[in-house]
Each structure stands twice: as structure tokens, then as C-alpha cells.
Amino acid sequence: MATQYFKNFPLVFYNNVKLRNIMLKTNIIREIFLNDTNFYTYEVRDGQKPTTVAFDYYGSVDYTWLVLMSNQIIDPYFDWILSNEEFDSHIIKKYGSIPVAQSTIVEYKDVLGNYVSLDTYNYYALISSSMVSNFTPVYAIDKEFELNEQKRNIQLIDRVYSTKIASELEQSLA
């Protein structure tokens, strides 16, 4: 049974070093992945990582790869939701400080909820001040928070399929 995703990939030599051939593609039970009813919506709690979600839902950290694959996450560090502490660090690194992010306008939003860039807003302001009266600023901290929160709800393959998927993975790479 495939319990660790990469352990089933064959070993190859590259520059005289033995490595796993992670470039192989597998077709792991496509029907399961294509059927939306096979997925369970899971809300990631603050600070949870893919390993803890795998343990909490599938009963083993060995299914971390299934958590990531189910959500088409390639980079678990930057594609995963940041904890509150990580979010603050990200904001400070990107903007210099939280107060700067709170005062930096990154775009504008109209009354219908459509976003416009700073350049578009400035163009509208040149044409008519009444046009821009319908826009509200979107601050960097709010935009970054919104982008981060979009990662909170993930999809997990129903646990009844986890062993079947792992078994097919192992067989396809044998």
C-alpha cells in the first residue's frame, strides 16, 4: 500500500546520484477525482499544516500527498494558508510593517464589487471626479488577508477512497 507518495517512484541515476524519478505522471483513479461528490470540504484551522490535516482526516501523515493533490497544491509553503503569525511576518516582509500595509492602497472597488487597478482609478480621476466617488480604496492588508482566507476551505477526497487511491498509485508505479 502506498503510504508515502514519493516512496513508490522508481530510483534513477542522475549525475551519478541515485534519485527518485518524480517526473513520472500517474493516473490515479481519474473517476474519483472528477466526481465532486467524492470530495469533502474541510476548513483549515489556524496553524494547521497539510500533515496535521492528513492525520486528522485520514488518520496518518502519510496521506499528506493526497491532501495536497486534492487541492492541486504544488508548493505547500506558499500555496497553503498562512497562520496568523506567518501572515503577520509575510506582511512585514512584503510591506515593511503592518501599519504601512494598513495604509497602502493597492486597488479600488466600485459599488458593484468590481476591482480596478490604481492606474485605472487614476485615469478615471483625470476624466471626472464624480466617476471616482463610487470607488472605495482596498488596502494591502485587506487584500492580502482576503487572498490568504481563500485558502482556508480545502477539498479532501472522501477517506473511503484513500486506501484505494494509494493502492492504485503503488500499482501504477510498480
Q: Can you tell me about this structure?
A:
This protein is α+β, with helices and mostly antiparallel strands. It folds into 2 domains: 5-80 and 152-173, no CATH class; 84-148, no CATH class. Helices cover 43% and strands 17% of the residues. The chain is built from 9 helices and 7 strands, in the order ββαβααααββααβαβα. It has helices spanning 30-34, 50-58, 64-70, 84-95, 98-103, 118-127, 129-132, 140-149, 162-173, and strands at 11-14, 17-20, 39-43, 105-109, 115-116, 136-139, 153-157. Strands 5-4-6 form a 3-stranded antiparallel sheet. A two-stranded antiparallel sheet has the order 1-2. A hairpin with a 5-residue loop joins strand 4 and strand 5 (115-116). Helix 2 (50-58) packs across helix 3. The longest helix has 12 residues, at 84-95. The radius of gyration is 22 Å and the shape is elongated.
How do you describe this structure in short?
The protein is an alpha+beta fold. The protein contains nine helices and seven strands; from the N terminus they run ββαβααααββααβαβα.
